[in-house]
Write a structure and sequence with these properties.
Layout: H1 2-15, H2 20-27, E1 31-35, E2 40-42, E3 50-56, E4 59-64, E5 69-75, E6 80-81, H3 84-89, E7 96-99, E8 103-109, H4 110-119, H5 121-147, H6 150-160, H7 164-167, H8 170-176, H9 181-190
Antiparallel strand pairs: 1-8, 2-7, 3-6, 3-8, 4-5, 4-7
Helix pairs in contact: 4-5, 8-9
Length: 194
């Protein structure tokens, strides 16, 4: 638990340092949880009650209906995870969150986070900054999906996260960048990875 909190502190303080009191209060709301591979953390229709910080493992958020499945995001050490829009609005999620591998996560509740943001303005500012950067990343990804061709999407994925080819099944990576598995396989065979 202590190592996990140190990783969380390191991650947070790159964005915005907290006072000793703020950090002690923030560190006090997290609990360590372990999940098996393919565990559903949040199902569509449920309201996201938790914010996670990933210590080990890989998770994915995805959309699923009767006709299609689309991977929205992957999370891995050391980043936050959860269905963000449902967590922030406290409305039912349209998406699923699952573990792709056995995962060790720090977890806190929406209620605890809200109470801390009311108590410490600096923590509220920190959460707002993380939310702003997440939105920025989402808009960048949206532009990529709408304007890049298949090879550009593939190259962008590898430039941003080259390690994912060994960690995440290729069918999920193909879904994430908006292409079918056959096209992804062809790109794997033909695009030189630098």
């Amino acid at each position: 638990m202590e190592k996990g909190l140190e990783q969380l502190k390191k991650h947070l303080f790159t964005m915005q340092p907290l006072s000793d009191e703020e950090w002690q209060d923030f560190a006090g709301i997290w609990q360590l949880h372990q999940y098996k591979r393919k565990a559903t953390l949040t199902a569509a229709g449920e309201t996201e009650r938790y914010l996670y910080f990933v210590l080990e493992g890989i998770q994915r958020a995805f959309f699923l209906d009767a006709e299609r499945e689309a991977t929205l995001v992957f999370t891995y050490p050391y980043c936050f995870s959860g269905i963000a829009d449902s967590l922030l609005t406290q409305l039912p999620s349209r998406y699923f969150l699952e573990t792709l591998t056995a995962s060790t996560l720090l977890r806190t509740t929406h209620t605890q986070l809200q109470q801390l943001m009311e108590k410490h303005r600096n923590i509220e500012k920190l959460i707002n900054r993380f939310t702003s950067f997440a939105l920025m990343g989402l808009l960048e990804r949206h532009v990529e999906l709408l304007t890049y061709n298949a090879e550009e999407k593939f190259r962008t994925l590898l430039k941003r996260s080259p390690h994912v080819l060994q960690l995440i099944p290729h069918k999920y990576l193909a879904s994430y960048i908006g292409m079918d598995a056959t096209t992804f396989s062809k790109l794997m065979a033909t695009v030189r990875i630098e």
